[in-house]
Request: fold
Amino acid sequence: MLRGRKPADSTADRAADGTASRAGSGAARKAVAAAAATAAAAALLTAAGPAGGAGAAEPVGTAELLGAVESVADIGIGGFGIGGRHRVAWAGAEFAPPGKSTVPAAVTYDRALVPVGAQVSVARYDSRRGMTVALDVRGLPEDRDYGAHVHTGPCGARPGDSGPHYRNVPAPRGSSAGPRHANPENEVWLDFTTDEHGEGRALSSHMWRFRAGEARSVVIHEHRTRHDPGRAGDAGRRLACVTVSLDPAPGR
Reply:
């Protein structure tokens, strides 16, 4: 938490306080408050209107989003204080099909589950000891679960072009993915459920940062990510992809 400063936008605080007051005590109240604050924080990514092209000006002020994300950190997501944070990377775009010679910044491989014209925003924010990645999507089918992860390569014309999930601690070469390496602490999982308006959002906080050149996209999958041995990290088919360089800022 930034010392001596209240969040620039108190929406997340009000949502968390109002919802938590109706919940039980302890872990249940904390979980409800975290969900409310997460939704309020990620919603700020596109609160000012439709997303522009990748690398366009961010839709709301950085301070507003940081203030809302602080409320999430205070509740305990990621388990660490995230004061001293600043925006490292941001991208926003509308999904489009791959062209014959070009690949859009946000590409859909399944137009039924990720329609052309649906919007996506991805942001990465630094902390003293780690980072927070935020995902916001709009225009998808309503009331549906999706998986989403940071991948190592940029999006391509084919779903597999973005490569595997980014892992903070890579699995040994030749080994199969298991829960030890394919888990939401070692990877960046951004699973979400769309609401009645087809909107979804997620935040993922970690006490580590990406290696340079190894985190280049966010891929949306057909179902939530599995945790069980033998299927750990599996979220089904790759439905869409947004290219965004999530590398550390130069000199960091």
Remarks:
- The first helix runs from residue 11 to 20.
- The domain at 87-172+179-243 is CATH 2.60.40.200 (Immunoglobulin-like).
- Helices lie at 11-20, 27-43, 62-75.
